[in-house]
Amino acid sequence: MISDPDVFGLLYLVTIVCFVVALKFLSSPRHARKGNWVGGAGMLVAIGTTLALEGISNWALMAVGIAIGTVVGVVGARTVRMTAMPQMVAIFNGVGGGAAALVALAEWHNAVDPGGDETVSIVLSALIGSISFAGSAVAFAKLQELVSGRPIVFPAQNVVDTLVLLGAAALGVTAIAGVEEQWVLYGLIGLALLFGVMFVLPIGGADMPVVISLLNAFTGLAASATGFVLDSTVLIVSGMLVGAAGTLLTLLMAKAMNRSVANVLFGAFGQLQVAGGPERADDGRTVRATTPEDVAVQLAYARKVIIVPGYGMAVAQAQHDVRQLADLLEQRGVEVKYAIHPVAGRMPGHMNVLLAEANVPYTQLFEMDEINPEFPQADVALVIGANDVTNPAARSDPSSPIYGMPILDVDKAASVVVLKRSLRPGFAGIDNELYLDPKTTMLFGDAKESVLKLIAAVKAV
Which one of the listed residues 207, 388, 409, 431 is annotated catalytic? Predict the structure, then answer.
């Protein structure tokens, strides 16, 4: 047992330092794995220190909880497919918010000063944690396609959402005023859960990277509020780190889409779904299909190829085959680079994670601002399952819902090859003008099968 406050204070300081260092390492793909290890080590120190504190009891119950959590975490992390990583992040994030709300509920009658600062922390923990839990659960259901990924809206939805949130806030004020009735906190949590569900339902799949980041920030804030409830400095600091990082990432994701956070949350982006795709433009341009053999000739004799991965590559689990194709081209003297859009995929960094799994060198991954000036020098831009982030309408059509969104300038390459199952629009629900560009050819089919055909065809050139 640890009874000296200086000792456990020092150990908690080690935890905080580990979390800060982990965030630093996670800012670069080259050191991200090390960051995970450092962050995990810090969490292990925090758990061990907490269990060693004087006065800790219920060891059997805690052992059961630790065992269940360990099994769920290890099995989940080991078995989840990379395409399902956003879902796992969403649900694990929600568990954190739910835990904060449960702690608030448990500590409700233990407050030494009803209506004081501790009650404020309990109310904030319950409110924000419940919203994060329910919102993350809906995000998980959307990403897992248990419910429609399209915005689910009804008349006056924003008004109803506002009234529900105001109701939860009113109950929070009632609790802070000194009313200790159990129904007050139950009602607050219930309304917060309802708001979390209604908050995420109207948000389309295209905005999930922003939503996941925002809910992550919510969970951090809820954890920090819980730290005040439990008088835990390490929980306060770690929660604020998560909250700050999630908030910054949310703003960066919104900026990458050239939209405000408010528009993401209340704009029902992607509400309209176009059933097919553009086969012919008014000016006579048509979509041109191609064959693996023709594409292989372009790739094999190119000087520079830029690969643009998207969610279609993730769904097809084609990242390893894409790496094999790139290696084959490099053996022929072709310069190969990867263009990564900030909101490609369904969560921040999704493409980076997928390509890292395939051992694609970090030096070949380039963010949008770095790679866009190089497209005019590229002989071929190979788009694999990416849609909205390559749509020139973002630059040319003021009426488009994605107008102003920074995109990858694939249309500036000498030739564009798009690997896609069909002409069906992406999450934004609009046709992609890139497919009608005279420089663009379409290789229809599953991304993995198409890449395997390209590998065989390049070898035969």
Answer: 388
